Amino acid sequence: MVQKLKLEELNRIDVETFKKVEKIPLVIILDNLRSMHNVGASFRTADAFLIEKIILCGITPQPPHREIHKAALGATESVDWSHESDINTAISDYKSRGYEMIGIEQTTDSVMITDFSIDPSKKYALILGNEVEGISDEALPHIDTFLEIPQLGTKHSLNVSVCGGIVMWEFAKALK
User: Fold this and answer.
1) Residues 172, 52: contact at Cβ < 8 Å?
2) Is the predicted pLDDT of residue 24 greater than 90, yes or no?
3) Segment 43-84, tens digit of pLDDT
4) Which residues contact 127 (CB under 8 A, 6 or more apart)?
5) Domain limits of the chain?
6) Where is the tRNA/rRNA methyltransferase SpoU type domain (predicted)?
7) Are 146 and 103 within 8 A, CB to CB?
8) What is the Cα gyration radius of the chain?
9) Three-state DSSP class for 113?
10) Of 161, 164, 169, 134, whose CA–CA distance to 36 is shortest?
11) List of residues 6+ apart from 81 with CB closer than 8 A
């Protein structure tokens, strides 16, 4: 008979070990997110896939906060993060460190993620935008590539934390 594993049977690493383990060369830039739940969920996903860092830009809520913690389940303690008031400063900083800027956005130049080849020798920064407005207009010219997730239903977009989870998983598979 199938039984669910208990927490202690999952053999997860502790926060101290997480901090020391090699991360995948992937940074997540959250651009003006409004929802603390989306921020918390992004931290939790980043922890699951050993993401290098999250940069919270603009009005994106910052830990510590009860609502972020509720979704993050402690991942704000494991995942490295910082805040940058201006997204273009974050983009410029990581571009100068050799990261390719990938905007997750529906644009006239978007490439379907299924048609994009992730190069394991590169470092990437994934930019996820505001729940209503998407990525800031002022950031668009500084982004190298725009990726879109194919959708087959009636809705025009996914929740930003769900979208982030899908894209983080695709990059984690290719970069690990």
Assistant:
1) no
2) yes
3) 999 999 999 999 999 999 999 999 999 999 999 999 999 999
4) 29, 31, 87, 91, 101, 102, 103, 104, 105, 135, 139, 143
5) 19-175
6) 26-169
7) yes
8) 16
9) helix
10) 161
11) 43, 53, 54, 55, 56, 62, 63
H or E element, residue 163: helix 160-175
Answer yes or no: are the C-beta atoms of 139 and 104 closer than 8 Å: no
Sign of CA dihedral 106, 68, 28, 136: positive
Q: How confident is the model at residue 7 (pLDDT cuts 50, 70, 90)?
A: confident
d(CA 7, CA 17) in angstroms, rounded, equals: 17
Alpha carbons within 13 angstroms on the beta-carbon side of residue 9 total: 4
Residues with Cβ within 8 Å of 96's Cβ and at least 6 positions away in sequence, in order, are none
- Which run of H or E residues covers position 99? strand 99-104
Does the bond joining 64 to the residue before it have cis omega, within 30 degrees of 0? yes
